[in-house]
């Protein structure tokens, strides 16, 4: 009998995702919150366990593997998901948004708790699908952005699958080869392929344009969910890909902290600013994972845990402002702090957390990654991380100044009790993990193998210097920053390339398909003509006609009177009747005003080589009829 510890935490989340579509909105949101809180409790309490292996594609997938790493990621995924559902209820998001968001969370949980590469791939691909749907649900500009998002993640998913296949090819096509190994993947090629997929989902420089392009576009509830799961699952996958670290990855992370913070400074769109800071903060996580030391890995996952909380709270603050003012841009409203103290307080806690102010959770985890760079003897990496921290202070000084202080007070409705409850719970967690950091340390990998003292004099001096330098830099460049309108990122190149490239590819495929269709139609009509005119009067000199004639004659020469024109005609008539029946049923239900355009489209037919005009519908009918004839011949033989 399977115990509760063997049930993947993704299962109850997926079940409630299906149920919420069929129950009243309030009931659905309440049930979803309860399920996610229950899943979080399960993750916290269940002992370390490797669950059952399920047959899939001739292999066995380990669907549950509760270990130190999956536990710390799963805890914040589940707990934050409950808060995000509560915020979604306050925004008025409908049940479709809730259902797709829950499927997205379920996919992320499945990926993190999967016990092997195949399970991770399945969760990875499901996340890409559900997150794309979550973006598309909002319509408008989100559809185009979602298309670009889908292209990037289709590429990433393809690379991931190719990498796992290459790994299996090198290590043997069996379930044992799928298990996570401390040495990573079997070959350099497999590592590069999976590393490319991780780089896309993590928003590595050059592969990141989907992030600031997509996250500002959908419903504000969708942005809150999106900011928490895709990039953080990529960090988890980076750990699985480079379990012993990779110094190149660490330096990529270090540069990301500066790049993301610099571009965030140039933004006036709140969610675009926050999206660039996802890239910057993921840089700290990748730096820790890349260093590979016990302290670096622990710091990377500690920062992942903390970042989900304060970055999610920042997206909630931005969403609450957008819902109340109708504006995304910081220069379209002002002085909200005078009219909405609850939103201001939530912003202050989140901003102090992300800027690593002492007393808040970001101070602890960011300090761990910086310490790991010092222990590893990488001073350049340390200075990259510190420079990114200064840029972070400047960015959120800008956000706070324009949103809550500058200008005339904008009258907006106060936060609802649900918003205050969600803001308060997440803000409390940010403060609690900054003060009682031992609780987080107990969850991190290999706590006995590393040691750090967050509130040492050196750490406090360093944090104070970063805050002071960042604030002074913002004040001295405020007029310059006000004139910036987003800056030129590489999407100025990648977006046109993606647009024209996919258009060229689709047109090429369409032309090829058209040629194949015309060829198939011509061949089909020759076959029908040959069957109906066995005397050969309509058989031409082309090889295709002669081969068809030979086949028909060979069939007729068999010692059976059951195979003849009547049999072939009957199969063809039956096939055509079966195919036309749904179309005829649809036509009977069409309004009269639609029948004319429908018939015009149906009669807009390409001309086949036989001179007969055929619509796509008729082409399919003929092809299916020919297949029916072939089946009849095959049954005879």
TrEMBL record:
| Gene name of the record | mrpD
Cellular compartments per GO CC: plasma membrane
One Pfam family per UniProt: Proton_antipo_M
Q: Tell me which residues make up the NADH:quinone oxidoreductase/Mrp antiporter transmembrane domain.
A: 114-394
Which segments cross the bilayer?
A: 6-23, 30-49, 69-90, 97-115, 121-138, 150-170, 190-211, 223-242, 248-266, 278-298, 304-323, 343-363, 383-405, 417-437, 457-475, 619-636
Q: How does it sit in the membrane?
A: Multi-pass membrane protein
Protein name from the UniProt record: Multicomponent Na+:H+ antiporter subunit D
- Would the keyword Transferase be found if you checked this record's keyword annotation? no
